[in-house]
Amino acid sequence: MPEKSLPRRRFLAWLGASAAMPVMAACGGGSAEAKDYPVHYSEAEWRKRLTPEQFYILREEGTERPYSSPLLKEKRKGTFVCAADGNPLFSSATKYESGTGWPSFWKPLSGGIGTSTDYKLGYPRTEVHCSRCGGHLGHVFNDGPRPTGKRYCMNGDAMLFELA
To answer: Is 153 a catalytic residue?
Structure first.
């Protein structure tokens, strides 16, 4: 093997490994247990209380497939609550069609959510979680409608709908 190709191969291996880091970090999921929330259970208890899809999203910070949630088309008057603990999160009055494939809202209910910074894709995003159990709900972006300009892009499997 020629000696000139060895440094180039090392460089390409390093480049490939560094490019894969954000993807690997995103796939690993996280845990909503980092902070002590008022509602908390062991992992085994959460698994009993939640469906596999809900556990994946709420407790492992997963994401559902776009356009897969029945809540995407929910248009009745009511409240969207956390599927893990029933905490009221969003009013149906703030729901809108964002075209992204996930239920979207322009404003949360007071005290319903918390936020943190998420670097799983290699750049900062604002993660949205339930203020009572810490369950992962989705992310908030600055491309929403007036009056807030926010788009709370939520996983439908992380929520339940309560009719008014």
So the answer is: yes
Q: Which one of 82, 130, 133, 153 is the catalytic residue?
A: 153
Say how far apart CA 90 and CA 106 lie, in whole Å: 9
User: pLDDT tens across 89-140, in order?
Assistant: 999 999 999 999 999 999 999 999 999 999 989 999 999 999 999 999 999 9
Cross-strand pairs, 115: 128
Class of domain 5-163: mainly beta
Residue pair 54/156 in contact (Cβ under 8 Å)? The answer is: no
Residues 6+ apart with CB under 8 A from 144: 96, 98, 104, 106, 150, 151, 152
| 73 DSSP assignment | G
Task: Write down the residue that tokens 């007036």 correspond to.
Answer: 146
